[in-house]
Amino acid sequence: MWRFSERQLTNQIPTPEPSVSPDTSAVLTALRSSAVLLLPDSTVVQASAPAHEMGLIDGDRLRSLDLAELVAAVQRDGMIRESSFTIERPRRAPAHVFARVAPLSSGLLLVLVEDKTREHQVEALRRDFVANASHELKTPIGAIQLLAEAVGEARNDPEAVERFAERMKGESERLTRLVQQIIDLSRIQDDEFSIERSAVPLRAIADEAIEASTVDAIAKHTRIELDVDESAGELSVWGNRQQLLSAVSNLVENAVTYSSESGTVMVRILRDADEVVLSVSDSGIGITPDDHDRIFERFYRVDPARARSTGGTGLGLSIVKHVVASHGGDVSLWSELGVGSTFTLTFPAWDSDEGDHGDPDPVS
Predict the structure, then answer these.
(1) Model confidence over 94-127: pLDDT tens digits?
(2) How far apart are the first and last CA of the chain?
(3) DSSP 131-187
(4) Considering the entire predicted model, what is its pTM?
(5) CA neighbours within 13 Å on the CB side: how many for 305?
(6) What are phi and psi of 316, to 5 degrees?
(7) Alpha-carbon span 210 to 248, nearest angstrom
(8) Distance, CA of 150 to CA of 144 (rounded, Å)
(9) How does pLDDT run across 313-330, given as a tens digit for each residue?
(10) Phi and psi of 86, rounded to 5°?
(11) In the chain, where the domains are located
(12) Among 240, 312, 244, which Cα is nearest to 278's?
């Protein structure tokens, strides 16, 4: 009797491994976030499509050692754990993620992973912006302080006082532009900010933008040319004049700044069917293909060292992008290293016989 019982115990059917219920499987299939179900031995039994797209899975195992260690910790004590780390992926940029691992009653382990790469990039850009803005604010403030001291010391020399006062004026204007640019971007991006709109002739906008950069252009022996297709009829946009001027002025100023000595900046305005097109071209250093996709991001600067020496905070092109989007338009870039760049703004055309046709829906 004892031998029979021993043999019976020896031949018992092994406990089946946990399985995924149809409902759980359906949930994973429908998820838009990265989720992975693991067996107790860390074998991947099922994963959502985003988990595969993120590169979390390598065969039937987790690719990330950090994620595998987090799973192992949960297996040891059965406690829910979470952590942030970077996942290296073949032929792709690393992903900054937040992961949470929890044991399920079925014996399986659930791994949830959020891709925080975008937030990580934005935070890095913000840190860069603070550094850049601090430097740009410090420079004119420091210069004004030194010039004020110089004025005091030269109070008996009228010519020196006049010279220092003129330089103080220039530094104060630089400081004002910087602060205004930060304010402009903040207001443009505020969904609750309501702007007044009217028919705005782009020729007048271009004239004013060119005039604002004339002094800098003369200093660099750079020629600014304006080519307007006068035969196209109305070349106006329904929008906010100040915002449009800010966008075009930023493009012209950048073109002059990054053009080669004795170069040419060309501003063109033309009509293309139901659209008005304004482009600004320079004969400058050009922009690398890797920077094309990011150049319109807030706080992004192609060459921080050069940008710092020429002024600016990486906000100008972001302002351009948001202004154009809020006017229902589009902005594009062509550039070749050593040849130059062309920024093209395309807006819905406004015709005088249409009257007030309302505000276009902003494009984010």
Answers:
(1) 889 999 999 998 889 999 999 998 888 878 877 7
(2) 80
(3) HHHHHHHHHHHHHHHHHHHHHHHTTT-HHHHHHHHHHHHHHHHHHHHHHHHHHHHHH
(4) 0.54
(5) 0
(6) -55, -50
(7) 9
(8) 10
(9) 567 888 899 899 989 999
(10) -110, 135
(11) 23-115, 125-348
(12) 244
Instruction: Read off the tokens for 164.
Output: 């220092």
DSSP β-bridge partners for residue 334: 342
- CA-to-CA distance for 227 and 206, rounded, in angstroms? 10
Under 8 Å between Cβ of 275 and 262: no
DSSP helix/strand/coil, 16: coil
Specify the amino acid at residue 38: L
Provide, rounded to the nearest whole percent, the portion of the chain with pLDDT above 70.
Answer: 83
For residue 269, give the nearest of 228, 222, 240 by alpha carbon: 228
Measured over the CA atoms of residue 61, residue 62, residue 63 and residue 65, the dihedral's sign is negative
Domain pair 23-115 / 125-348, same fold: no
Phi, psi of 335 (to 5 degrees): -155, 150
Residue located via tokens 């949830």: 112
Instruction: Write phi, then psi, for 266 (nearest 5 degrees).
Output: -115, 125
For 113, the token pair is 């992973």
Closest CA to 250 of 335, 312, 202, 305: 312
In angstroms, how far is CA 61 from the centroid of its own chain? 34
- What topology does CATH give the domain 125-348? Heat Shock Protein 90 (3.30.565)
DSSP 74-139: HHHH---EEEEEEEEETTEEEEEEEEEEEE-TTS-EEEEEEE-HHHHHHHHHHHHHHHHHHHHHHH
Work out the angle at residue 106's Cα, subtended by the Cα atoms of residues 101 and 108, and round it to the nearest 5 degrees: 35
CATH class of 23-115: alpha beta
